[in-house]
Automatic annotation (TrEMBL):
GO cellular component, one term: cytoplasm
Keyword Cytoplasm: no
Protein's UniProt keywords contain Metal-binding: yes
Key words, A-Z: Carbohydrate metabolism, Hydrolase, Magnesium, Metal-binding
Coiled-coil residues: none
GO molecular function: metal ion binding; phosphatase activity
Protein name: HAD-IIA family hydrolase
PANTHER family named among the record's database cross-references: 4-NITROPHENYLPHOSPHATASE-RELATED, HALOACID DEHALOGENASE-LIKE HYDROLASE DOMAIN-CONTAINING PROTEIN 2
Species of the source: Georgenia thermotolerans
One Pfam family matching this protein: Hydrolase_6
Cofactors named for this entry: Mg(2+)
Lineage: Bacteria, Bacillati, Actinomycetota, Actinomycetes, Micrococcales
Superkingdom field: Bacteria
InterPro entries assigned: HAD-like_sf, HAD-SF_hydro_IIA, HAD_sf
CDD domains named in the record: HAD_Pase_UmpH-like (cd07530)
Length: 257
């Protein structure tokens, strides 16, 4: 017999919001978690924004998520490196979401002899910063990237994202990064620790098989795939693993809280 679900992890884009608009049932689902005082975290591989920025963006679309309920790949990366090498030094390509998280984790940002090169998302990748990263990795810095996503969404079409820039650096150095964000179950386990939740009694909601469902499954969670994002019901059959359940949207999960 399966145990009841006591805690929830949910992806953000394609589950709660799409291009700044709340998806059906998202605000009600979060309101229900809040009302019943259920532990939860909203997960995103986006490393551009701080949790405070994301909380404000969600509030603008009508979804009330306090900043401490948001877990980004930038926070997961900062937590990871701070555990691996406390008080280390990093050369960082990224935005405030990543640099703020690293400062708060006790890291020093430097372009001289860093322990790590840490690559995150930006909208202004510069040739000179990529060149610097390549040289530092060749000189022995360890290579970390916040997330493997090759592209990100925009209203005009796809944008090259962290995974694509990581591939460029890999080609130039012969070194692959360690990706901390989804589908790495490290991102899921750190989110569980944050709310003192256990895998057997936690569910993960996502709109992607290759990130959300994969990471949730590998971390031992129950997984719900919703069809409001980038996956159709027919796509599910192409994967060698399955979500626990497929639901049309998060609206159909409100009464499971
Ligand atoms: Mg998504």
């Amino acid at each position: 017999m399966t145990e009841e679900i006591k805690s929830w992890l949910t992806d953000m884009d394609g589950v709660l919001v799409h291009e700044g608009y709340a998806l059906p049932g998202a605000a009600e689902f979060i309101a229900r978690l809040t009302e019943l005082d259920r532990p939860y975290q909203v997960l995103t591989n986006n490393s551009i924004f701080t949790p405070r920025d994301l909380s404000a963006r969600l509030a603008a679309s009508g979804i009330k998520v306090p900043e401490e309920r948001i877990w980004t790949s930038a926070l997961a990366t900062a937590t990871f490196v701070a555990q691996q090498m406390p008080g280390g030094r990093a050369y960082v390509i990224g935005e405030a979401g990543l640099t703020t998280a690293l400062y708060q984790a006790g890291y020093i940002m430097t372009d001289v002899d860093p322990d790590y090169v840490i690559l995150g998302e930006t909208r202004t990748y510069s040739f000179s910063s990529i060149t610097r990263a390549i040289r530092l990795i060749r000189d022995g810095a360890r290579f970390i990237a916040t997330n493997p996503d090759p592209t990100g969404p925009s209203t005009e079409g796809p944008l090259p994202a962290t995974g694509a820039v990581a591939a460029l650096i890999t080609k130039a150095t012969g070194r692959s990064p360690y990706f901390v964000g989804k589908p790495n179950p490290v991102m899921i386990r750190a989110a569980l620790n944050r709310i003192e939740a256990h895998s057997e009694t936690t569910a993960m909601i996502g709109d992607r098989m290759d990130t959300d469902v994969l990471a949730g499954m590998e971390a031992g969670l129950r997984t719900f795939l919703v069809l409001t994002g980038s996956t159709t019901e027919a796509d599910v059959e192409k994967y060698p693993f399955r979500p626990t359940e497929v639901r049309p949207s998060i609206a159909e999960l409100i009464d499971r809280v």
